[in-house]
Request: fold
Amino acid sequence: MLNRKMLRDIKGNLAQFISIFVMVFLSVFFFSGISGEWRGLQSAADDFYQAANFADVWVYSESGISQADADAVRDIDGVSAVMRRTMLKTAADLPNNPEIELYYSEENTISTPYVTSGEEFAIDKDGLWLDERFANARGLKLGETLTLNFKGQTLTKTVKGLVLSPEYVYMTSESMTPEFFDKGFAFVSASFIGVGTPFFTQLLIKTDVRDFDALERAVSDALGGKYGAFLTRDNQAGYNQFSEEVAQHRSMADIFPPVFVLVAMLTMVTTMTRIVDNQRTQIGTLKAVGFSGKKITLSYLGYAFYPSVLASVLGVLLGPIVLPPLFYPSMSAFYTLPTWTPAYHYTFYIVAAATVAFACLAAYLATRRTLKLSAAAALRAKNPKTLKSKAAKNERLWQKLGFNLQWNLRDMYRNKTRSVMAVVGALGCTALLVCALSMNADMLDAKIWQYGEINRFESKLILKDDLTSAAILNVLKAANGEGIMEDAIEIRANGGKYSATLTVTDGGSLLTATDKNRKPTVLPKDGVSLSYKIANRLGVKVGDTVEWHIFGKEGWLSCRVAAIYRAPTGQGLRMEKTALEAFGIEYKPTAVLSESHIGADIDGVASVMYTDDLTRGWDNFTEAMLLMVAIMIAAAITLAVTVLYNLGILSFTEMRRELATLKVVGFSSGKINRLLLSQNLILTALGFILGIPTGILLVKAMTLTMGDGFDIIEALHLTDVIFSALIIFGVALAVNLLFRKRITKIDLVSSLKGNE
Reply:
């Protein structure tokens, strides 16, 4: 009988229970879906790293690493394995001469190539094991030959296998979007390299040590300081970029569920409170005929248990199926993994079970006071709440408020939980909207900042390696451009160390600078300037000293920071040619910037990047984030509609008697509707105001996961606030319109009839 009663009550309050179902479903759906997506990525990457025995540390030495050096490092406590290796930058004998980073090693034990088709790679096999994505982009097949050119020497090998590498989960490029048609990598055994005597410049290390500062000191002692860089996984470009992407997606999984669970719990409390209050007589009757309090309590807990269980099960099942495939197409254009499948994790079931438990707890808290009453007490009508606010006691102030505001304040005071639910719902919706719209606007601003304000060139001509000064001068004249030298560096200060970019100009105007407030600034010609983000990370200000060196070059250089500039990309050091030469380093341009649209047919030019290519690369890079923005906006609108519609139903049901009384004393339906609308707008406005700073905090949390290579300025845009307000208040007005007919059709007799 109690089960039939529960089903009848749920049917009679279907809208409220549907809203509870939707909130619980969305919380579990978003958590399991986004968690399944990022956990799937992380699991695939971890399996990839394990299968390839991914290195923990890379040591680079331009003077070479001997067998004695390798043995000395191997003897360090905590080091389990080492492997010597070399990378040569070669050009493939194909149209446009794409760059192939060719690796050869004396062993195949660390960071081994992951073979996707063809023969397994081995040091006693001759042949070439080629990057699968490059091969697919170029239409190369197993068994074909490929000729590679390196400093006037040629190496022709048969493609024996197509491979992936954990070091190229993300392949860096000028346009941010990996250019698989123009760049790839390959492996060959050192025994069959055929390009001079094998000379090893890299030492790959596997270690259990996580105090990398101590490990670097030990490696430095073992090598006698003869090394140019000590790189850990966290500073390896591909690993670092992918890890930051996963962290950003993970933060999304942490944002959505709490908002929806909180709203679902408040909805449950208000719904169950109203049901139990309206069924005091029924509860008293059930107790009077012999039903125990425990049995009745369990029955009412079923109101929360069954909808939340169904919603949680559907959320866990559908989340990992629906959401990950939305992200994978755009992400696979940037990242390379052997598999792209979502992962199921035990936390999904914990969150689902916790959500159900919270729903049941909310139902219990809402009903426990009434269910503890005796049969006789429950059969008596509940005493109405009285207003005991200071405003009510201050007659003069109270009279100045006007009837509408008096009525609404009294009603909100009497129904605190319902009012809180409205405020929290509007707050959550506003926070998600502000976060989503601000992220979208911030990324658009960053693109304009980088490619419209800092970059003043139309073409960027990437120069071939080992060009003579005369050849570089010819390119500069042909393009009527400005030279720029870019290189990878390491910077350290105050115990911190970061991988960064060195940018050296020759007094040109096509690459400008901005200060920390994004205002144009002129950097000192005879000093070194440090980017704002790295300065903050290292705790450095103007006048402080930092150490740096070009990646792979032995020995650290010390300099005083003459200025701090800010840019959304390209974090590191900037200086002019004369400042670089003062360190005893030759200025050799790696690219030429031009205001004109220059073709790639100039001798000495490897490739050309145009502003359109760079902005398109930025758009592609941020595509996954913009998809998150779209999901957040959809979720926010769903939240607003569900909460405000449910609030309207609760308000109308709870105030039916008061509304009928107002109609009897002469209030028109339109005036009553405006009365309800004013309360709805007051609560929505309060939630909206509180939601704006909450949304800003969410934006800050999101941008923190973008990593050290990006510096995004978080800003609250007026247009975003206005658009958020239009959505929130638009939904509030639309929901109010839905109840106009209900107000008109109120049955005065049944609504005013007393308790029987």
